[in-house]
Amino acid sequence: MRSAVVVGAGIAGLSVAGALARSGWAVTLLERADRVRPEPTAVVLWPNGVRALRALGLGAGLEAIATPLPDGGVRRPDGHWLVQPRALPADRMPVVVHREDLHDALIAGLGERVELRTGVTVETVHAEAGERPAVSDGRQTIEADLVVAADGVDSRIRRRLAPEATVVSSGSAAWRAVIPWYRAPQLPDGQTVGGEVLGAGYRFVSASLGDRGSAGGSARGGIYWVATAAGAARPEPPRTQLALLRRWYAGWPAPIGELLDATDPADLVQQEIRELRPLPRAYGYPAGPGGVVLLGDAAHAMPPHLGQGACLAFEDAATLAALLRESRLPDAVTAYDRVRRPRAATMVRQARRMSAVLQARGRLALRARDAALGTLTPRLLNTAAASAAQWRPPS
User: Fold this and answer.
1) Is 84 among the domain residues?
2) I need a labelling partner for 391 at 20 to 30 A (CA). Which of 59, 106, 186, 189 fits?
């Protein structure tokens, strides 16, 4: 029986661990934290992410937990439309999923062949020709035919194998929250949740998770929102951060103020937005009978403005699983590198272009952005959506 060590039990690690186990591999899943738990937020999945989950055998329950996310358009803080809402073709319509629901589906997909070990911080990786790849936490060394580094943007395995890839700040921070339906504001007739509002270095996006009344007080439906602001992450406690957000977004179009007022500090999740510059020169490193591969944010952390981070991680997992079924292990590691690097580079380039547009600051830059946004943003989004829609898992 072939064996794998997957480092990191986020959505990337869980998806690939389950896929390998369902293919007959013995999998050891290592997680640094003492518990495997998701953020109480949500994630947007574009058609490529949905298609990848189905290829991983996880599509059966996706419809029950996913909510379609129509295009809500783009406005300025004064309410002026920059981009009117548009009807999206069904094959380009994203969905939004509560992370805890997605986490439950991924955990259920692990099966009995996955040994989960928590509280393990991998410090080193061994990937030498002629020897089995291995990882170590300084106390024990675990060998396997394949090592999958799904340990996020701060991946220690990537630092060892691809030191040229440096983690840098994208110059902004993000705050996310899900307001459960029992606390969500009742909106006036004609006022909807959804769409995007752009200011000078500030951005606010919201979406509904299901319909009001579809979930009880303890269930996971509600209203999901994301706010981004230029600058570093804030060191203050969540209550103070929430007060800052209410001040920064005061006067913005409804229902932004209502959503922030209905948010509890315990709902708030802050994240510094970081990315890899440059990307690693390789995503696969043959060693001994197999090798080491980089997956998810460990391989291609990028600005979040196209919502492709989770989708690319699921693409990685689906591609790796398919190649391992079709090819000898060393060949699969090489093929994974050959297939995934160009794909990731394309999506990262598009995300950075969108980031440059959305983070414009200064009077002249904002005027230029607003004047061009009606044609530039749809063109960028259409290109990104087309790239996402065109992806298919290896047959």
Assistant:
1) no
2) 106
Query: Are the C-beta atoms of 133 and 257 separated by less than 8 Å?
Result: no
42-87: pLDDT as tens digits:
999 999 999 999 999 998 878 889 999 998 988 989 999 888 888 8
pLDDT digits (tens, 9 = 90+) for 312-348: 999 999 999 999 998 899 999 999 999 999 999 999 9
Number of domains in the chain: 2
Given 274, 294, 326, the domain boundary residue is 274
Residue 42 and residue 102 in contact, taking contact as beta carbons nearer than 8 Å: no
Residue 350's pLDDT is: 86
Are 151 and 23 found together in one domain? Answer: yes
Looking at the fold, whether 14 and 138 belong to one and the same domain comes out as yes
Q: Edge-to-edge, what's the strand order for the sheet holding 95-98?
A: 42-45, 95-98, 66-68
Check residue 359 and give its pLDDT: 60
- Give the separation between CA 366 and CA 381, rounded to whole angstroms: 19
State the amino acid at position 112 in one-letter form.
Answer: E
End-to-end CA distance of the chain: 23
Place of tokens 């606390």: 183
Query: What single string gives the DSSP state of each residue in 295-349?
Result: -THHHH---STTS-HHHHHHHHHHHHHHHHHHS-HHHHHHHHHHHHHHHHHHHHH
Same domain, 147 and 296: yes
How far is residue 226's CA from residue 220's CA, in Å, rounded to a whole number?
A: 17
Contact 314/97 with Cβ under 8 angstroms? no
Joined together, the tokens standing for residue 221 give: 């439906």
Domain shared by 156 and 177, yes or no: no
User: Where residue 174 sits, what CATH number does that domain have?
Assistant: 3.30.9.30
Domain that holds residue 136: 3-71+94-168+275-390
Quote the Cα angle for 108-114-119, to 5°: 100
| Shared domain check, 32 and 156 | yes
- Report the alpha-carbon distance of residue 141 to residue 243 in Å, rounded: 47
Same domain (yes/no): 248, 308? no
What radius of gyration, in Å, describes the C-alpha atoms of the chain? 21
Helix (H) or strand (E) holding 386: helix 363-390
